[in-house]
Amino acid sequence: MAKDTLKRSKRLIAPALVFHTDIVVKKAEGLYVESTDGKRYMDFSSGLATANLGHCPPEVCEAAKAQMDRLVHSGCVFHYDSEVELAERLARITPGNIDMFFFSNSGAEAVEGAIKLARFSTGRQGIIAFTGGFHGRTLGALTLTASAARYRMRYHPLLPSVFHSPYPYCYRCPMGQNVKTCSTECFNYLESILRYQITPEEVACMIIEPVLGEGGYVAPPFGFMKKLRALCSKEGILLIADEVQTGFGRTGRWFASEHFDLRPDIVTMAKGIASGFPLSAIGSSSKIMSKWPPGAHGTTFGGNPVSSAAACATIDKIERDNLLENANKMGGRAIARLREMQKRSPKIGDVRGLGLMIGVEFVKKDGGPDKEGLIKVIKKCLSKGLVIIECGVDKNVARLMPPLTIKESEMDKALDIFEEAVI
Ligand SMILES: Cc1ncc(COP(=O)(O)O)c(C=O)c1O
Fold first, then answer.
1. Residues 263, 340: contact at Cβ < 8 Å?
2. Separation of alpha carbons 196 and 397, rounded Å
3. Of 300, 320, 340, which residue is a domain's last?
4. Residue 3: pLDDT over 80
5. Of 59, 65, 274, 335, which is the most exposed, with the fewest CB atoms less than 10 Å away?
6. Where does the pLDDT of residue 1 fall: very low under 50, low under 70, confident under 90, or very high at 90 and above?
7. Distance 134 CA to ligand 1 centre (A)
8. Domain-terminating residue out of 320, 341, 371
């Protein structure tokens, strides 16, 4: 084992890249990460909602190794099984009429491709995204990202003709309403963009995370998503569901769109797709994809044979082991326990989530966001062997996103540690 990895990492890896911990990994397996200094951690970050089957899942690693003996790279010169087999599986599990795919490497790349597809196929330029949304860091995707102004700082000017409407974050309503007074003012705002800023016939697409990830683990009201779908259909605007974080069982369904009966025109996927092997995908209907002619988009590494084999094995394991059911069961167990904690601790303002995408919002006495309070909780958890990371514009939301394979006893142990840190 090489020595001083942390020190060398700090010297050699660009400081722009923020690491959530100083843990240097010796070995990772399932929920557990073992550090070079001999400590063992329960990883409730799943490597940023990606290791949905836990670290190094044997079936996935075996499939990748077997593929490595046959073909590692194609570069769009040759056809190969694993990519096609993955597309067949995705056609079966993605929501709505999605039946054709373009594979790339990262979430941001999928988002870039999705907005290119929307612009090309509609012949329109405008894009509408939502404040709180995170869609990646490349310049096009960054233009859509509005989960925090700091991500966009010093990169202006960004892509023109992109407009943002408030995401329905009901706990801190951007329109100053509450459950009793709400008449989906945020949707009215969205409509006003189409009246005052850009005509609907100039808008190519709207892009939304069906549950906000980086922006604070927020699920929108069902009614908002219904209205959004209806508006897009009425105006011929393509609706893109960014399922990069919410996909592959994270919310207890294959895709979070299903919670809202949402049939998106385009879906972006990455993170959990291949259990940590780099891969992403844009999915759409063959009707829309057929409007994107050969050469309109391309890639060298996208749909890598090894990553594709890993993705097939990932999907098969989720199905074979009923992991969506487990995510719902374990998520329900966690939320019930966290709501109990909320009753006993004024530090917890809100507990929310779907499946194993759970947010716990920390607040000060006056209800304002409590970033410092959460930092203390995260540090205490880490010292007891539990890795938790934060999200939200004010970094005051703990996100609990363990692997879908988590067992009851592991969930209970992690929540014991979390409770001890909070109360
Ligand atoms: C919803 C969403 N879209 C896009 C991205 C960007 O993905 P990547 O970091 O793989 O480029 C992320 C990453 O967190 C995400 O959560």
1. no
2. 34
3. 320
4. no
5. 65
6. low
7. 7
8. 320
